[in-house]
Amino acid sequence: MKAVQVYYQCKGTLAIVHADVEEIPIEERKILTRREFRCRHCGERWIEAINSPIVLDQVVENNLGDYYRNTIYCQQVK
Predict the structure, then answer these.
(1) Which residues, including other chains, have CB under 8 Å from residue 2's CB and lie 6 or more apart?
(2) CA nearest neighbour of 4 among 77, 78, 70
(3) What is the pLDDT of residues 27-71, one digit of tens each?
(4) Strand order in 45-47's β-sheet?
(5) pTM here?
(6) Which of 11, 16, 43, 45 is 20 to 30 A from 25 in CA distance terms?
(7) Which are the contacts of 9, defined by CB distance < 8 A and separation ≥ 6?
(8) How far is CA 69 from CA 6, 12, 42, 47, in A?
């Protein structure tokens, strides 16, 4: 699954696409009452909240350019 991270307070900022996202199993979560995700590509982890990256619906994922015009993909951890 994919997720997108947009900084709305900064006009003209690119949307960052996390292309290989997985939901962390409940046993490994820091906060049990919230969903937690990890990008396998760059290693970033986040807890689902209002300012966290948004996990994309399949329709949005298939038509990413229609929803987000200026996008870049996250950088792989070396």
Answers:
(1) 17, 18, 19, 20, 21, 55, 56, 61, 64
(2) 70
(3) 888 888 899 999 999 999 999 988 899 999 888 888 888 888 788
(4) 21-23, 36-39, 45-47
(5) 0.79
(6) 16
(7) none
(8) 12, 11, 22, 26
